[in-house]
Amino acid sequence: MKVLDVISRVRSILNDADATGYRWTDQELIDAVNDAQGVIAIYRPDCFSVNQVITLVAGSKQSIPSPGYRLLDVIRNIALNGTSPGRSIRPTDRDTLDAFDPYWHTNAQKGEIKNSVYDERSPTVFWVNPPAIVGTKIEIMYAKRPTALTAANDDLAIADSYFEGVLMYVLFRAYAKEADFAGNAQLASSYLSLFASMMGIKLQKDVAFGMSMNRKGAESNPASIQAGGV
What we know:
Number of domains: 2
Distance between the termini: 29 Å
Radius of gyration: 23 Å
């Protein structure tokens, strides 16, 4: 899906079809599409998730790569060649490690990680146990900020299933610009509400039909049924 697909649909809805004098410029709409992706990234960080092998610094405290804004998972050790998989890394909580060994942050550094610790209040930082030797490699999953779009022919960084959500947000921004005109402020508010509703419904349905909510052999799952799944 390209930015042009969103712009064309938006112009059709806005009745802004005169190319000799568009009321909303292409750049304004491209900026709105960028903003839509940024807001969706807050609602659904999994939409922009990447798996990446990273190299650790020395010690227990680590950070995700700078384009990232939230850690999603710490998966496994990776050999120094950067490709061969190693031991899986199990998540644990800091209270457990602190109770078992209050000095675990100062233990001998090693090249194989056993546990990871994460605190939602610091989404770009995590800790590893045992503390890492500098150069240790692991694979993580994290949410990465979507690359800024600059042209109508650019591909969106988000799945096609989010097209309607992006469309609603861009329409909100378009009508918000013209809020002084009668009815436009209400239209802007309506499109923003539709966008928020779509994001909530999308999340609910993804959970309802997700593998973790559905049993092998397509057996019914009460929790999934309650969420509107199978």
